[in-house]
Amino acid sequence: MNSKEKHIAIKAENITKVFGDFTAVDHISFEVEKGEIFGFLGANGAGKTTAMRMFCGLSVPTSGTATVAGFDVYKETEKIKKNIGYMSQKFSLYGNLTVAENLNFFGGVYGIPRKELKAKCNELLQKLNLEDEKNKLVGELPLGWKQKLAFSVAVFHNPQIVFLDEPTGGVDPVTRRQFWKLIYEASERGITVFVTTHYMDEAEYCDRVSIMVDGKIAALDTPSNLKKQFSSQTMDEVFYELARGAKPSE
């Protein structure tokens, strides 16, 4: 393994997922570096969620090879799960438990020692300004607070990689900006962020983006380079060009 390989968080080579006669993910290849914020974009049905499930160890690829946090997606799925965090648009918290109970529960699931857990919980509540709401049911919190809490829980155990599936869906622009501040802080701590979003302006916040069209990666580069390649002012325009079949220029 060379020095560059040691800094690769996710590596996929010709990963494919077939359901009967339908190819959901079609020979995709890419690498994500440690600490990178990697945007995985595409319209509904483009194959984003199917691909993410394979990288999280929840679905076995039909063919191709991939490693996540250095572990094989075929043979080491349990090791992958122990080294990642995950958050979906539905925020993955228990609405019938209080904020404090959720933190204690997930802290236990992630194996955080009891001596550390209390201090980590207090630190997180203070950071999110949720100290006065710690005994409130999560189901009673505003959506934006739920999303920020869910993300914080997903990185509570300091995983190597966190997978975020449409994490800011349905929240207001101010809350979205606050959420992305949390993402940047996680990245600065060395956590790799793999995020899907349908908000093209959020693609601008990523170090690099991959755009899926019909199960294939149609383009992969930094947002600024993609805009240059398509002579576009925004990522919305880039996405439109790719959707209509345009190819990136050199």
TrEMBL record:
Pfam family, one: ABC_tran
UniProt cross-references to InterPro entries, sorted A to Z: AAA+_ATPase (IPR003593), ABC_transporter-like_ATP-bd (IPR003439), P-loop_NTPase (IPR027417)
GO molecular function: ATP binding
Start and end residues of each ABC transporter domain: 10-239
Keywords: ATP-binding, Nucleotide-binding
Keyword hit for Transcription regulation: no
PROSITE patterns reported in the protein's UniProt record: ABC_TRANSPORTER_2
Protein name: ABC transporter ATP-binding protein
Originating species: Kaistella yananensis
Lineage: Bacteria, Pseudomonadati, Bacteroidota, Flavobacteriia, Flavobacteriales
